[in-house]
Amino acid sequence: MNTIQFPSFWASSLAAGTVLFLTIIAKLLQKPKIFKLPTVGIDATDATILKSRYVQEADVVLREGYEKFKNTIFQVLTPDGPRIFLPRKYAHELKGYNRHQASGMKALSDRHIGNYTTIDHESDIMLGAIKIDLNRNLGTFVADVEDEVAYCFETQFPPCDDWTPIDLHDKLLRVVAQASARIFVGSPMCRDDAWLDCSVKFATDVMTGGEKLKQWHPWLRPIAQYFIPEMARIRGDHQRALDLLMPELKKRSMELNDLNHSPRNDMIEWMQERAKSTGDKSFNNKELANLQMLTATAAIHTTRLAIIHALYDLAARPEYVEPLRNEILEITKGNNGVLQKQHLTQMRMLDSFMKESQRHSPPSVATFQRKAMIPIDLSNGFHIPAGTIVQCNTNMLDEAPAEWGDPHAFDGFRFYKLRSRPGDANKYQFASTSYDSMQFGFGNDACPGRFFASNQIKIILAYILTHYDIKFEDGVVGRPKNFMFEVNVLADPTKMVLFKKIC
Ligand code: HEM
Prior knowledge:
- The protein is of the alpha+beta class.
- It has 18 helices and twelve strands.
- Strands 1-2-8-5-3 form a five-stranded mixed β-sheet.
- Bound molecules: protoporphyrin IX containing FE.
């Protein structure tokens, strides 16, 4: 037995020794590239503290930068090296560059070391299916999504006859994943536990695996990736997704022989049709499975988080429940409470509440991140070298236009009131992007899934508002403070919301 273990002992010792040696060399040689820009906090404290402040309170660090260097580009020291933050006005300049010159996807991929986590994969088929096909078909899905949401609450939630604590992070993950899958892979696959598990875990593995791998110097990552369980899972997730998708794909190709078969009208079909019409030879079932995982990664966690933030805002401010509930009941009463496409458009109070919630708790305090793929010179003379990532400091509430009223107050009906002004009915919507609302990004490459997300969030919130009362567990006073992870704004997972059935 010893003879079998002996070589593997030496092999692992040698590997560990090599990794340790390379780590020390890499640390010694590591020299982060500092830009000729003002640096937030550099005079006050040492670099290690600054870096960990960025991880835990990037919102505070960016406010410091904003107050000290107003309207000036500044940099912040982060564990990934210095990061450049632009005043919002530069978004106007950068949006003039196309995605091959200033790329949001490449910036995102770099953040999560996409060449290892597999998200460094840009696809016109995927973008077209979301930007064109999904958005064109939004209206036809309302009933399907509502049906899926109701089914999910009935099967996944406890009865809630009395006040019942609900782990929103867990339960809403399922609701959003299933309701999205109804449109991404259709029925019945949207109820397949294994598929849902695979599509939500892939995103988590990418985030966590990427963070763990980033702790290693770039030279060591080719080896280090094999020591990180999430990285191993990512490799398996792609194969698993394909295996799970194959029976559905086979069924669909058999159906093609049936002259009476009706089109499915879901993301699988749109992607297949796009590949056919563009003659893309690199598209196959494996690629389809990959694109499904990437779409789920972009869609599910972001939408779930927006709903949790809105529910926290609602539970902390119960005075909004009655008007929002009444709006939904009033709009749907002629249709026995069943939602239709135009009902979602008519829910202006809910739309306003969602937008205000997102203004206070955006997905990130620095959206519009772009990787310069070519050298770019800004109007103030600052040169962005190719390969550099920049982002805008997009969450300075004081920058809101004066007509919006007190920018720091939570006014759930702020945008409802603005939209009630003559000529402004179609402005200030949750899914609208503008210079003053960059939560979904800005310009041509702003989030293409935001209209779908808006509908999903409305359908789920409308279901909750018309079926449950909600409140925070005892002891929670006011709106729980958000957690920061770098620029990402997360809802405090330690606070529990209670649900009680009302009908
Ligand atoms: C509340 C939910 C969501 C939030 C907060 C959100 C936020 C964002 C943001 C901030 C960006 C970057 C835009 C920019 O830099 O200009 C983005 C890009 C993107 N989002 Fe979303 N998103 C959400 C839902 C979705 C959904 C449901 C989908 C898919 C159906 C989706 C697909 C994408 C894609 C593909 C991109 C990259 C676009 C490109 O590079 O052209 N997102 N999202």
